[in-house]
Amino acid sequence: MSQAASETQITRLSLPITTRRLLIREYTAEDIGAVFSYVKDPVYWQYQRSEAPTEEQIKTLIEWVVREQSASPRLLYFLAAARRDTGEVVGEAVLKILNPVDRQGELGFGVVPKFWKQGYGTEIGHAILDAAFGQFKLHRISGQCSPDNKSSIRVMQKLGMAREGLLRDVHFGRGKWWSSVVYGLLEAEHAKFRSVKKD
Ligand SMILES: CC(C)(COP(=O)(O)OP(=O)(O)OC[C@H]1O[C@@H](n2cnc3c(N)ncnc32)[C@H](O)[C@@H]1OP(=O)(O)O)[C@@H](O)C(=O)NCCC(=O)NCCS
Predict the structure, then answer these.
(1) Beta strand 89-99 with 140-145: parallel, antiparallel or unpaired?
(2) Is the dihedral of CA 12, 14, 15, 18 positive or negative?
(3) Residue 147 Cα, ligand 1 centroid: separation in angstroms?
(4) 80 and 68 in contact (C-beta within 8 Å)?
(5) Is the CB of 150 under 6 A from ligand 1?
(6) How many domains does the chain contain in total?
(7) CA–CA separation, 1 vs 152, rounded Å?
(8) Which domain holds residue 115?
(9) Does 41 reside within a domain?
(10) What is this structure's pTM?
(11) pLDDT for 20-46, tens place per residue?
């Protein structure tokens, strides 16, 4: 296979993505208030090494995210996950294409605390992995979180991802060192996992 043929084809992700309960869509400036309302919750932010952002910083972030939507090639998808029935934002989905040549990507997700433990994190993760492997033909997708973040680790396990290692004291923030646990999934593993598990 030639090098060009093996690279990720940087087309655009087809959006929105519809799942059983969710519409995973582009952010708009109208989402700033909804994002700030869950990000400011200390329980949501407990495993993040940086200080929780202010409302002004969330506004700047979402405005930047909206500008990135027209980037070409587009390597970052920071998306809102909203309930299909009510439109309420239940969380966020992140896909970063880290390296198109080696077909490496990174997954991220977050769910508004009042919706935790209802399967939304897993539903978001499946949608992003399906799109990333299916549409971008990525070869490996990784995810990282604090080793104390048990629900995030559990979601990555439920997505079929394997623990690849622990980066010890890799970040310093909020007055302490943070380690990071790395999970990863290869395209063949994903195809096999999804052939037996649909939700
Ligand atoms: C991580 C997060 C997205 C999970 O969302 P969620 O909608 O609750 O996820 P799901 O309901 O799909 O699955 C959560 C799983 O974690 C398990 N879980 C929750 N808290 C747990 C704990 N303290 N210890 C062990 N497992 C736990 C749940 O029981 C469930 O597993 P199960 O289905 O086998 O019972 C959510 O907690 C979150 O947004 N956290 C803050 C942001 C964050 O940490 N993002 C990810 C890393 S950057």
Answers:
(1) unpaired
(2) negative
(3) 13
(4) no
(5) yes
(6) 1
(7) 36
(8) 13-143
(9) yes
(10) 0.95
(11) 999 999 999 999 999 999 999 999 999
